[in-house]
Amino acid sequence: MTRKQHDWMARPRVKLGIDVLLESRRDLLRGRRVGLIANQTGLAWDLNHTIDLFAEADDIDLVALYGPEHGARGDAYAGESVDFAVDARTGLPVYSLYGARRKPTPEMLEGIDALVFNIQDVGARFYTYGSTMALCMQAAAENNVAFIVLDRPNPITGSRIEGNILDPAYSSFVGMYPIAVRHGLTMGEFARMVNGEFGVGCDLTVVAMEGWERSMWFDQTGLAYVITSPGSPTLDTDIVYPGTCFFEGTNLSLGKGTPLPFELLGAPWLDGQAWAETLNALDYPGAIFRAAYFTPWYGDYAGEACGGVQIHVLEREIFEPVKTGLKMIEVVRILYPNQFKWRYSEEARSPYWFDQLMGTNKVRIQIEAGITMEAISASWQPALEAYETMRSHYLLY
Predict the structure, then answer these.
(1) Is there a domain that residue 382 lies in?
(2) Is pLDDT of 6 > 90?
(3) Least packed by Cβ within 10 Å: which of 7, 192, 274, 385?
(4) β-pairing verdict for 146-150 and 162-165
(5) How far, in Å, CA of 145 to CA of 361, rounded?
(6) 208 and 254 belong to one structural domain
(7) 3-class DSSP assignment, residue 8
(8) CATH number of the domain bearing residue 318
(9) What pLDDT does 80 receive?
(10) Strand spans (E) along the chain
(11) pTM of the model
(12) If 0-12 CB within 10 Å is exposed, 13-18 middle and 19+ buried, where does residue 46 land?
């Protein structure tokens, strides 16, 4: 049975798409064989999982589950291949979307009338849940399956966009479409844009939230925050992630294997005090940097003492994560020209994983040429303005 609702559980200010569906839009699923794409974030307001809510509903015929990165119940680590499984609670088959295949095959969709997507995103282009959704939408269009998105908040607001626009030549699972790094969309809006702008053309329905406003941060919704991945444990992580994720493309630790992934950054060869003082002298808006020393228990430099910084966001309304993260890379490269390295990757379209995350090789080349982050980010403005115009056609709130 699903979890009991307690008297002290106040109804949140924002009503999620899943709650709207169960209260007033069950007709979307009635008479259909349903496949559900979800992970540990696919919850209703009272923290009951969509899998269990659908499985226990007499009028919903849930027949299959589809697990993205981290799995349908969230039990797989970042980057870990997810295998076909059977859900222990419901006995339903769980088809992996993060293993040998990332797009459902016709066999995986056999007998399915509607695919339902209910996953919490973090508002950044390279988070893989958006790519999973887009590939499932493609499969739905190709196999005459309806696609339903149960909308959820953008935790870092839907009112801000930032970063470069991806070059389609660098399209990958960490960025499929020419959108901004901080895209300013909910998953429902993203689905609408993918469907209308990039030629997917599936039978799409978005069950919109009620009460959500574009300026809201997640902690203003009244909803309980649920960890979106092992590397994104808090809203504070989400706020810095669109900028510090770029450190995955370098030879620094980005704090994985510590309690503060993406907030702690460093390396064994780095003097945290020198890096912090240099960064603080630049007076980047909304953030300060604290010299920090840490020893990751897994991941890069596991078991090695690292010097570095912790980024503290004091004014999130003016904080610019993309510019700040890239400025941090610019500075550490100047301070440690012999130690700093771009991470090589055989998976990337160029030899460097940074380029894949960035969606272009231009930014790395510009940094190497000594062009300042201020000049680099200024060059993005015309494309960002065009993106903002395109994005405006698909907004729901």
Answers:
(1) no
(2) no
(3) 7
(4) unpaired
(5) 37
(6) no
(7) coil
(8) 3.90.1150.140
(9) 56
(10) 33-38, 61-67, 85-86, 93-96, 114-118, 146-150, 162-165, 180-182, 204-207, 264-267, 287-294, 306-313
(11) 0.94
(12) middle
